[in-house]
Amino acid sequence: MDIMYKIKNLTKKYDGNVIIDNLSLNIKKNKINSIIGRSGIGKTTLLNILSGLDKEYSGDISDFQGKKISFIFQDDRLIDYLSVFDNLKLVLDDEKNAYDIITTALEKCGLQEYSNYYPTKLSGGMRQRINILRAFIVKSEIMLLDEPFKSIDLKLKEDIKNFFVSLHNETGNTCILVEHDIDTVIDISDNINLMSDDKFKLKKHFDDLSDKKRIAQIIREDI
């Protein structure tokens, strides 16, 4: 049986408006759990609550509290005046072993030659690879992803998605990916939650993704 992190009866209001209304959702441990819906319906709000950035809500997210959580945003948020190595080092608690951890991680990903590069000297795709690697090396239990492939050129997107999936397969942490791009969630998810525009309620859940074409069609009709 799959182990779940549970979101129970979560409600979020902003200026008197209900953004998330009594949401209950099961998140499978060690899987890529995707949440898809139109832009502006509450996906990022949910991630902010789960990460602890937003504390003004009602409901139970105790399964997420006290867990080590990493966050991959739409933009890479690399610090331009720090080298790739130092950007990675910044997120590590283990300073003593930082050199070995970072060097090993870069070598595994074939990125060792970029260790001393500054982000301004990297392509957009390379910056996002470093951004993704940075989230993985902290060895978080839960990873939150806010449309991390959105700003990547279409030609590079497949490579970056494969890079992300290979790291996930190696580490096995629990991922919650919010997206509005159907192809992305179909390609990399273990399960998909389709959300409605009406106060961010669960509309459909897909656990068996073997018939990707059919599921993509259902989502396109409902989103």
Automatic annotation (TrEMBL):
It comes from the Bacteria. GO terms for molecular function: ATP binding; ATP hydrolysis activity. SMART domains: AAA (SM00382). Residues 5-222 form the ABC transporter domain. This is ABC transporter domain-containing protein. Keywords: ATP-binding, Nucleotide-binding, Transport. It holds the Pfam family ABC_tran. InterPro entries: AAA+_ATPase, ABC_SmlMolc_Importer, ABC_transporter-like_ATP-bd, ABC_transporter-like_CS, P-loop_NTPase.
